[in-house]
Amino acid sequence: MRAYVHVPFCRQKCGYCKFALTPFVREAQVSRYFAALFAEVSAFADAEGDVGKVETLYFGGGTPSAVGVARIGTVIRQFSDRFGMAEDAEITVEANPEDLTPEFCRALLETGVTRLSVGVQSLDDAVLATVGRKDAKTTMAGLKSAFDAGFANVNADLILGLPQEKPKGTLSAMERLHAEFPLTHTSAYLLEEGSYPKNWSGTHADTESVREEFLACRDFLIRKGFVHYEVSNFAKPGHESRHNRGYWERRDVRAFGLSAASLWKGERFENAASFAGYYR
Predict the structure, then answer these.
(1) What distance in Å separates the CA atoms of residue 155 and residue 232, rounded to the nearest whole number?
(2) Domain chopping of the chain, boundaries
């Protein structure tokens, strides 16, 4: 079984984001949401019976790291108790760098998480401020905490074409990250036309420049021994995201939570994108 869990909470909503989430973390709302999530997982388990052990479990968002280790650990235990966990299960948590303190990383590793996907986006402080993110120093400290804690499978997300980004800024960031950390996976996403605020118009590179930089990033990663295995994703051999690769292979995945989209037994369906609708 492959499972996805949507955590729709962030401390702020970044300008490029179009996912279903709320840009704050209030304890009462988080508690109610996770109670509904646990109920959805239990109802699925009761209805489906034996669906096999969990092979991949992916916490996406939103910002899963914003709700703390305890809640993530409780979800992992529920899946383990209801379905069983494969010995080589891949458990991924998306995280913002500012959440990755040494204590957080050690505790997350102890819950059974095997893979981190860190939203770096850029290492230019002006760019990060424009899109509502912390500074590069915070990013580097968070990644250091992850590796110091013992995470061996870490992805860094970067976005090309963000406003104020200098020419070859993403490539420079990628080179710096790989010089300082033993990353096993790197994602290079393209800023989608129309997915950003109107006031960003004219503040980011033209399409052709972004295309050329993407190809330069690809060439750099290939020279580092990475495989370009999916449109925006590059991995060291054996470190491809098994969960995400399953989407491209049209394998079943049961997705839980707000707006989560499943492909189960050949049928596609999506949960409600509003909290009120999801709770109903």
Answers:
(1) 12
(2) 2-279
Q: How many C-alpha atoms does 192 have within 13 Å on its Cβ side? A: 7
SS3 34: helix
Helix axes 136-149, 169-180, angle to 10 degrees: 30
Q: What end-to-end distance do the CA atoms of the chain give, in Å?
A: 26
User: Taking a C-beta distance cutoff of 8 angstroms, is the pair 97, 134 a contact?
Assistant: yes
User: E strand or H helix at 160, and its extent?
Assistant: strand 154-160
pLDDT tens digits for range 218-237:
999 999 999 999 999 999 99
What token pair was written down for 67? 């709700």
DSSP per position, 51-66: ---EEEEEEEES-GGG
pLDDT in tens, 252-270: 999 999 999 999 999 999 9
Q: 2-279 maps to which CATH number?
A: 3.80.30.20
The answer for 235, left when phi > 0, alpha when psi is -120 to 50, beta otherwise, is beta
Are 271 and 264 within 8 A, CB to CB?
Answer: no
Q: Which two tokens stand for residue 78?
A: 């529920």
Position of tokens 């993407």? Answer: 214
